[in-house]
Amino acid sequence: MTKLTFIRHGEAASGWDGHADPGLSEKGKAQAEAVAQILNELPQQPIRTSPLARCQQTAIPLAGMWNVAPTITPEVAELPSLGMGLEERTQWLRKLMMGKWADTEQEIQDWKQSVLEYVLALEGQGDQVIFSHFIAINVLAGHAAQSDSVIVFKPDNCSVTTFDVTDGKLTLIEQGNEADTVVR
After folding, report:
1. 17-31, 115-129, 166-180: lowest mean pLDDT where?
2. Residues 121/170, Cβ–Cβ less than 8 Å
3. What is the pTM of this model?
4. What is the layout of strands, in order, in the sheet containing 47-49?
């Protein structure tokens, strides 16, 4: 059994239409501190983070408590926006989030598959804490639920969602807190 604890990053300082890679807002920094206190109850384990600023900044408090350097892991990064401008990708994302994976562009389906393959390949590598994104966490939750919906739940900022990988199968152990996510 490999337990994977996924944390959605804290509140970003900007939405998809304002900055390609925003860091955390002040509220997001406070959320990161709070979730680190919760995660500090876990046995120390490797920390992985998306290369995007908001995930790296969310990982900093826990990494400091455990005195470990997070591993930057592109495989758990945000959904690629296919070279769109900031305003265009906001409209595209709103539409995508209401749909099914089977109806998305091949590049998006390939990204989804790469997230899933990466996570399944962590089996046997020990429990890990992974700071990631709304859609990437939904890839995993949807796979565990055998759903083709892009969105199966709405993980709140700094929510903690736990999965198990055993015998090549991904199981949702505990779904994180939900909140309304506004694509802005």
Report:
1. 17-31
2. no
3. 0.94
4. 71-72, 47-49, 128-132, 2-8, 160-166, 169-174
Instruction: Count Cα atoms within 13 angstroms, Cβ side, for 178.
Output: 9
Q: How many helices (H) does the chain have, and how many strands (E)?
A: 5, 6
The answer to whether 78 and 108 are in contact (CB under 8 A) is: no
Q: Which residue has the tokens 């930057």?
A: 72
Instruction: State the CATH class of domain 2-174.
Output: alpha beta
Q: What is the dihedral of CA 157, 163, 165, 166, to 10 degrees?
A: 180
The mean pLDDT value for 75-88 works out to: 86
User: Are the beta carbons of 37 and 12 closer than 8 angstroms?
Assistant: no
| Cβ partners under 8 Å of residue 26, min gap 6 | none
Domains of the chain: which residue ranges?
A: 2-174
For residue range 99-157, what is the model confidence (pLDDT) as tens digits?
A: 999 999 999 999 999 999 999 999 999 999 999 999 999 999 999 999 999 999 999 99
The helix/strand/coil state of 127 is coil
